[in-house]
Design a protein that fits this description.
By secondary structure, the protein is of the alpha/beta class. The chain has helices at 27-32, 34-40, 75-87, 107-110, 160-175, 211-214, 227-238, 255-258, 267-270, 276-289, 304-308, 312-319, 385-389, 395-407, and strands at residues 7-11, 44-47, 91-96, 117-118, 134-136, 143-145, 180-183, 242-245, 263-265, 292-295, 326-329, 413-416, 422-427, 430-435, 441-442, 448-452, 463-464, 468-473. The chain has 2 domains: 7-105 and 158-406, Glycosidases (TIM Barrel); 413-473, Immunoglobulin-like (Sandwich), CATH 2.60.40. It is globular. The structure holds alpha-D-glucopyranose (GLC) and calcium ion (CA).
Length: 479
Amino acid sequence: MWWRDAVIYQIYPRSFQDSNGDGIGDLPGILSRLDHIERLGASAIWLSPFYPSPNADFGYDVAGYTAVDPDYGTLEDFDRLVAAAHERGLHVIVDFVPCHTSIEHPWFRERPDFYVWRDAPANNWVARFGGPAWARDPVTERYYLHSFFPEQPDLNWRNPDVRAEMQSALRFWLERGVDGFRLDAITRLFKDPELRDDPAASEPFALPLPEEYGRLSHVNSANAPDIGVALRAIREAVGDALLIGEAYLPTVQLRPYTEILDVVFAFEAMNAGPDADRLKTTVAAAIEAGKLGWVLSNHDFARFATRFGENFRAACVLFLSLPGPVFVYQGDELGTPDGPGVDPPLDRHQRDRFRHPMQWNGSSTGGFTTGTPWLPPNEPQQCNVADQEKDEDSVLGLFRRLIRLRRDIGSETRLLDSPPGTVVLERGGQLVAVNFGNASAPFARRGELALETRRGDGADPETIPAHAAWIARADHARG
Ligand code: GLC
Ligand code: CA
């Protein structure tokens, strides 16, 4: 299993590298930057959607499952990218969006039976991005179901023809050489067959939700008990290719997903923030559940550096030392913070500030484009690859060292007792000690210092300094 402790690098194609000056990142641009990903030490790239899309949700509204949007290039560009990645030993994972299509997908008119239609809104379900989950179609004057934007009508996975179409799309990409899929919004594939109302939420959900959406408990609008039927159809199509599920659920509810998929994102740990107790609990629960993968951040959520602030470097050490795959979102390896976004916003769900173009150098467009970037870069003079390349103590330097160490970290992980504000774990021969607190914490190091967040942080073998971390090789300990 190549992905067991893999670092999987998430590319948001629109914002990674433009190759033709139109201000939009593209597949040839990605190919030209594979060096960076290889030097980082990642084992795979995950490409966010590059399929034809009217961009109501920037690619997550797919208008054709087996093509490349001309903004991003051609199928030949895709083949070249896969070949170049494989030549470097990088696996390729593509995003697959099975829950809904774009409203501009031809199926929406040609195959109404592929969607969920009613003469009037059938229940009280609410869309994740706000408002009712039923939208009126002016052409038919009927209502269709959408879990996200109204431009994203939900597919009816209970229809076997839908499952068959999705299976053939998956096979199309497998035949082009991809090594796996990241499955978008996978809890939505099966809903309550009777479309019963969602009850009011009686307690807060374990993960952050938009206010309106959080008022209901989504027991009927998602995550139906027979979700396994949909997941098994996907598994059947892809054989043993890697399947990563985006299931925005508390860890205790992930069982039906981990039974069939290989990796499921650990969103509870992602959301714990620099709270050592919450981190210990959520990390322990995720390790116990098995098959979970760690998310630093992604195109939907605040960036890793912003969420951890002064504890950012310590958090890098912790997350990159955990057992299981780690997902690094482009730019997080530089410590890129959330940007200002744009006014008026491009994303109606307010996620522009997590999607600024990658900053390759300190020039005004950050080396992202020779034209006008679709979204302005986020202060490239402050934070860019070229500067950090020259500085061993940069965040990029820290990521590279951590990923190198991760290669020979042991498999058995134990969380140890440690002072408040700290997390200490032992993995094989390594001792990983992290302090999110404002004061240095007593903890005796065993073994030889292998890494420190900043030069000098690990000088005192009896403590973990404030907002810092170190890794020691316990197997070199004497006595
Ligand atoms: C997932 C994607 C997000 C998208 C949504 C609907 O959560 O990560 O970007 O908006 O699904 O497809
Ligand atoms: Ca371009």
